[in-house]
Amino acid sequence: MTPTITAFERSPDRGQGLARDTRVRWALEEVGQPYDVRLVSFSEMKEPAHLALHPFGQIPTYEEGDLALFETGAIVLHIAERHAGLLSEDANARARAISWMFAALNTVEPPILDRETTRLLERDEAWYDQRMPGVEDRIRNRLGQLSARLGDSDWLDGAFSAGDLMMVAVLLRLKASSGMLDEYPNISAYVARGEARPAYKRAFDAQLAVFTAASTGS
Ligand SMILES: N[C@@H](CCC(=O)N[C@@H](CS)C(=O)NCC(=O)O)C(=O)O
To answer: Tell me, what CATH number does 60's domain have?
Structure first.
């Protein structure tokens, strides 16, 4: 059964691939699962039909038969569990990959999102310049720890997994808005390896095509 995901009709990032449907598209591309996309406007996302799928009125959602999911962690995990390619056959390796998914979403993404929120909503506050260094230090703390663990490895725990997919997706948010990743050459190379994956490229191109079509009216 072909799943349907939702994505922005017109992504605020102008097709940079930062909207979170990209990570779901990437997971689907990695496992070779075709999918349909339903585009939603900001106002549609807050209407009852979408709220029935996503209680917080956000994208992406994932529908497959009578199953409806929200939250990219849950969606990517679902895809990874149903298809080969993103989680090892070995039970302990699977569990470790899932730890990395949670680490990406619960430990690494929050300080990165804090920086984005600060830049977006608090730039005009008198205390902005005092707050930002602390926000960036918290990101550097996580990047330093991640860099130490990654070392010279290609991926976080053996073969590429859903844990790497989620970690790279989270780090790409930072790459787009700061040069901070360059301070950690092994993390920069790790992110580049993720971006070089054919499945990532297909996912990126697909979301960009949506933005381009919306902009050109084609
Ligand atoms: N924790 C959620 C975050 C979802 C999220 O923040 N989605 C953004 C797009 S990337 C969104 O819909 N923003 C519009 C809004 O919150 O109104 C997930 O990982 O799925």
So the answer is: 3.40.30.10
User: Which two structure tokens, joined as six digits, stand for 4?
Assistant: 């349907």
**pLDDT at residue 15 in the model:** 96
The residue count of the chain comes to: 218
> Does one domain contain both 66 and 164?
no
| Beta-sheet strand order (sheet of 61-64) | 36-40, 4-8, 61-64, 67-70
- Average pLDDT per block of 10 residues along the chain, 218 residues long: 97 96 98 98 98 98 98 98 98 98 98 96 96 97 98 98 98 94 98 98 98 87
Tell me the residue range of the domain where 40 lies.
Answer: 4-85+199-216
State which of 9, 10, 20, 40 you would mutate to test the pocket of ligand 1, scoring each by most atoms of that ligand within 8 A of its C-beta.
20
| pTM of the predicted protein model | 0.97
Whole-Å CA distances, 13 to 20, 38, 132, 146: 11, 18, 22, 26
